[in-house]
UniProtKB/TrEMBL annotation:
<dbReference type="GO" id="GO:0030246">
    <property type="term" value="F:carbohydrate binding"/>
</dbReference>
<dbReference type="Pfam" id="PF01263">
    <property type="entry name" value="Aldose_epim"/>
</dbReference>
<dbReference type="InterPro" id="IPR011013">
    <property type="entry name" value="Gal_mutarotase_sf_dom"/>
</dbReference>
<protein>
    <submittedName>
        <fullName>Aldose 1-epimerase</fullName>
    </submittedName>
</protein>
<dbReference type="InterPro" id="IPR008183">
    <property type="entry name" value="Aldose_1/G6P_1-epimerase"/>
</dbReference>
<dbReference type="GO" id="GO:0016853">
    <property type="term" value="F:isomerase activity"/>
</dbReference>
<dbReference type="InterPro" id="IPR014718">
    <property type="entry name" value="GH-type_carb-bd"/>
</dbReference>
<dbReference type="InterPro" id="IPR037481">
    <property type="entry name" value="LacX"/>
</dbReference>
<dbReference type="GO" id="GO:0005975">
    <property type="term" value="P:carbohydrate metabolic process"/>
</dbReference>
Length: 292
């Protein structure tokens, strides 16, 4: 595993080749750390890349061309070693390709490239998925960055809030105990575009917001000052902190895909919010982290 840094006058970003995962985002002047530091007491990851699924298959299984494939939550990319493809002072790219092991879990050859670009007080996270097969490829991809919240010592997470680019209300899907979507939904009423991070907000796991209900989400401190924003074009996103753990971080997760509904038929081609890629085509998406 290698560790790599991108640095400009404002910020320093550290990324590792294991999972092509961001591990640190610091302000150069204040030494303030914005990314969660993967304390396993709460959650041992910082910013995993979710591929080739986001969330779960129903019963961890999908069916493609009559064969059943078993895959764990969020797929395998986050647990694999990426190769370094290129690096400059402010941009870096990693690449991952299929193996015999991945083909046992997921029925496609693939080329996954993950890139990071530093510009001023902004990090751009970039994904490229290439289809080297002679048939259509089905996949999902998503981000899972965890941000320190509260940011300052002496503050409580319950004093902080999420700030959206909409006045809402937002409708959130609900996961059952197996990680599949159940029929219930939850209405999130916003006050001045804000949602307080109340103690029980994540008791039913992640908030899953579909259908482009928001495209920019900020984290604000106890004084109401936004200290970080995530901006994206993804059609849905998750917001998560471990249920009933009082974990000092919040994940803001742009997604191109999500867990199956609990009554889903397992057929890979029929997955809601799944992506299709024709032979030889490339899927390119990104999201941005803006430090205030």
């Amino acid at each position: 595993m290698g560790a790599y840094q991108l640095k400009n006058e404002e910020l320093t970003l550290t990324v590792i080749s294991a999972g092509a995962e961001m591990k640190s985002l610091k302000d150069n002047k204040t030494e303030q750390e914005y990314l969660w530091q993967a304390d396993p007491k709460f959650w041992g990851r910082t910013s995993p890349v979710l591929f080739p699924i986001v969330g779960n298959y129903v019963q961890k299984q999908s069916v493609y061309e009559g064969k059943t494939y078993t895959l764990s939550q969020h797929g395998f990319a986050r647990d694999m070693e990426f190769d370094l493809e290129s690096q400059t002072e402010e941009e870096i790219w990693f690449v991952l390709k299929d193996t015999e092991s991945t083909l046992e879990k997921y029925p496609f050859h693939f080329i996954l490239k993950v890139g990071y670009r530093l510009s001023g007080r902004q990090v751009e996270v970039m994904w490229k998925v290439e289809n080297p097969n002679d048939k259509k490829m089905y996949f999902s991809i998503g981000g899972h960055p965890a941000f320190n919240c509260p940011l300052k010592e002496g503050e409580k997470q319950e004093d902080c809030q999420l700030v959206f680019d909409t006045e809402g209300p937002l409708t959130s899907s609900i996961l059952n105990e197996e990680g599949a979507l159940c029929p219930r939904t939850k209405i999130l009423n916003l006050f001045g575009k804000c949602l307080k991070l109340e103690e029980h907000l994540f008791d039913e796991d992640a908030l899953i917001i579909e259908n482009h209900q928001a495209q920019r989400i900020g984290l604000a401190d106890a004084d109401g000052k936004v200290y970080l924003e995530v901006e994206f074009d993804a059609p849905l996103f998750g917001i998560w902190s471990p249920a009933k753990k009082h974990a000092p971080f919040v994940c803001i997760e742009p997604w191109y895909g999500r867990s199956d509904r609990e009554d889903f038929d397992h057929i890979l081609e029929n997955r809601e919010w799944g992506n299709e890629l024709e032979p030889g085509d490339i899927f390119e998406k990104d999201y941005k982290i803006l430090v205030k």
